[in-house]
Amino acid sequence: MASATFLSTLSLANKNYLLLTPTHACAKGYTNNFRVSNLPSIVVRKEGSVRSQGFVAMQEKGGSTLSDDSRTKTPHVLTVAGSDSGAGAGIQADLKACAARGVYCSTVITALTAQNTIGVQGASNVPEDFVAQQLKSVLSDMQVDVVKTGMLPSVGIVKTLCRTLREYPVHALVVDPVMVSTSGDVLAGPSILSTFREELLPMADIITPNLKEASALLNGMQLETVDDMRSAARLLHNMGPKNVLVKGGDLPDSLDAVDILYNGHNFYELRSPRIRTRNTHGTGCSLASSIAAEVAKGYPMLSAVKVAKRFVETALDYSKEIVIGNGPQGPFDHLLRLKSHSQDCHRQQPFDPSDLFLYAVTDSRMNKRWGRSIVDAVKAAIDGGATIIQLREKDAETKDFLESAKACLRICRLHGVPLLINDRVDVAIACDADGVHVGQSDMPACVARTLLGPEKIIGVSCKTPEQAEQAWVDGADYIGCGGVYPTNTKENNITVGLNGLKTVCMASKLPVVAIGGIGVSNARAVMEIRTPNLKGVAVVSALFDRECVQTETRKLHEVLLGSNIGST
Ligand SMILES: Nc1ncnc2c1ncn2[C@@H]1O[C@H](COP(=O)(O)OP(=O)(O)OP(=O)(O)O)[C@@H](O)[C@H]1O
Ligand SMILES: Cc1ncc(CO)c(N)n1
Ligand SMILES: [Mg+2]
């Protein structure tokens, strides 16, 4: 049995920190094997013992870590579990959940399963001594913070794990006592129950049985209501784990997904709306891994469980319609990416610099003046031959802007024309636009790149070769150079002229679009500076401060074609 949980609050540097100690590291037989971890760590000598190891967890409200040193290590979860060939549960779910939650995950594989959305067709255990070898390889080298267990298919493997954990103590142990898959296939037989009860559960910081597993651990106790779940949690807690989470994913007749967390003092009833979906295979593994991930980051158990549950709920909701496999229980998408790809038949094309040829930039004031909606303006520009659109809505309310952007995106995708958002990276992300255009005092392009990911288009306004170089370094795709001519659209804008444009084009490693006071009368002169990097012109007033946007766009298109430069 683990020794009793010892909780205290201590004051350090005028801040209250919650000191959790000892963790399971002081369970019977742990060796005196301490190490420095990313988690603010305090070795606690309790009752003359030097065996116990604890860590300072962040407080529920706005906690903070103890020292800068403590922030340098990457949080690390080791999952000890079975492989699922269908990749919805097991090791594969654990890897995806940890990646989604932003922690590193190493893997010790205990069994291979041949599994899909129909069920488990076969299983083959990894030999005990090879499980031991994998455990040693990882634990002796990689500074694991939290071990999470899943399928442990034999008594020998459970014992091997317990022995190795005593030799290499970690900060926390999360045990998902996997026994039966949702398809009803046995992943670990009843023979392991006694070793679970006697050896593994007492070492655990949390165990996360589903209803069937809780029932099996409690000799077949019937579990049909939330009250039954509370009773089960209390009885399981008596077996030694610090926390028990009884999961109610399979609770009959429950509109909500209810889980009960019990820490020996309090019960917490955690509820979320039940998502109506067939794609729930691997929810248990993912929940346990996400709890492990949050604990590895340093959060206290209650916060970790809450965040993990919300993550699973969000991922299920996001994935409720994805179609993978023909069986009754499909996998879900931890990384929240598959839906937009599978449902979007007009996928974004990779950035093509020739798209900068006729670059139309909308202006809310001009649209208002001419009594047209932003959607109508975009439609007309595309019909006239615009090759890329940027929405520049300085005055719009965010909610309205987002709605307009979504409507414009549908039109742009239909015509294969990229849609960029000016300044507002948040709006671009929210509507899944093709990219953003940022100015020198907006969000730096490198930060926008981190937020938007590698595929999105990022343009930066530049007036000098130095700014153009920085845009390249920051990972932009193109630069906008100007104002080439004086313009009313931008107040106090310094004009660079054709010479300034040429200097920047010559220096730039990125394709360039010219902007500022350009229209039908001078577009040809701009393109005739003849530098290979200049791919087109960006235009606001010459298209949108006119009665007929389509006609003006067509005229400009003809002029540009006549200049015979930059077009595809
Ligand atoms: N349809 C659903 N909507 C929302 N949450 C759900 C749904 N199904 C399960 N959950 C939640 O997912 C988590 C995992 O619970 P569940 O009871 O499904 O585990 P499990 O049976 O071990 O899963 P598996 O063995 O398929 O990996 C719990 O927090 C549960 O409340
Ligand atoms: C390998 C493996 N582990 C756990 C589960 C439980 O979901 C499963 N179906 N397969
Ligand atoms: Mg499970």
UniProtKB/TrEMBL annotation:
Asked if the keyword Transit peptide belongs to this entry, the reply reads yes
Any GO molecular function: ATP binding
Keyword Magnesium on this protein?
A: yes
Q: Which UniProt keywords apply?
A: ATP-binding, Chloroplast, Kinase, Magnesium, Metal-binding, Multifunctional enzyme, Nucleotide-binding, Plastid, Thiamine biosynthesis, Transferase, Transit peptide
Pathway this chain belongs to = Cofactor biosynthesis; thiamine diphosphate biosynthesis; thiamine phosphate from 4-amino-2-methyl-5-diphosphomethylpyrimidine and 4-methyl-5-(2-phosphoethyl)-thiazole: step 1/1; Cofactor biosynthesis; thiamine diphosphate biosynthesis; 4-amino-2-methyl-5-diphosphomethylpyrimidine from 5-amino-1-(5-phospho-D-ribosyl)imidazole: step 2/3
Q: Which SUPFAM superfamilies match?
A: Ribokinase-like, Thiamin phosphate synthase
InterPro entries associated with the record: Aldolase_TIM (IPR013785), HMP/HMP-P_kinase_dom (IPR004399), PM/HMP-P_kinase-1 (IPR013749), Ribokinase-like (IPR029056), ThiamineP_synth_sf (IPR036206), ThiamineP_synth_TenI (IPR022998), TMP_synthase (IPR034291)
Pinpoint the Pyridoxamine kinase/Phosphomethylpyrimidine kinase domain residues: 84-328
State its cofactor.
Mg(2+)
Q: Thiamine phosphate synthase/TenI domain: from which residue to which, for each copy?
A: 358-543
Question: One Pfam family for this entry, by name?
Answer: TMP-TENI
Where does the protein end up? Plastid, Chloroplast
Catalysed reaction, written as an equation? 4-amino-5-hydroxymethyl-2-methylpyrimidine + ATP = 4-amino-2-methyl-5-(phosphooxymethyl)pyrimidine + ADP + H(+); 2-(2-carboxy-4-methylthiazol-5-yl)ethyl phosphate + 4-amino-2-methyl-5-(diphosphooxymethyl)pyrimidine + 2 H(+) = thiamine phosphate + CO2 + diphosphate; 2-[(2R,5Z)-2-carboxy-4-methylthiazol-5(2H)-ylidene]ethyl phosphate + 4-amino-2-methyl-5-(diphosphooxymethyl)pyrimidine + 2 H(+) = thiamine phosphate + CO2 + diphosphate; 4-methyl-5-(2-phosphooxyethyl)-thiazole + 4-amino-2-methyl-5-(diphosphooxymethyl)pyrimidine + H(+) = thiamine phosphate + diphosphate
A Gene Ontology cellular-component term: chloroplast
Q: Which GO terms are recorded in the biological process aspect for this UniProt protein? A: thiamine biosynthetic process; thiamine diphosphate biosynthetic process
Q: Superkingdom, according to UniProt?
A: Eukaryota
Which protein family is named in the record?
Belongs to the thiamine-phosphate synthase family.
**PANTHER family listed in its UniProt record:** HYDROXYMETHYLPYRIMIDINE_PHOSPHOMETHYLPYRIMIDINE KINASE THI20-RELATED, PHOSPHOMETHYLPYRIMIDINE KINASE
Its biological purpose is as follows:
Essential for thiamine biosynthesis. Bifunctional enzyme that catalyzes the phosphorylation of hydroxymethylpyrimidine phosphate (HMP-P) to HMP-PP and condenses 4-methyl-5-(beta-hydroxyethyl)thiazole monophosphate (THZ-P) and 2-methyl-4-amino-5-hydroxymethyl pyrimidine pyrophosphate (HMP-PP) to form thiamine monophosphate (TMP).
Official protein name in the record: Uncharacterized protein
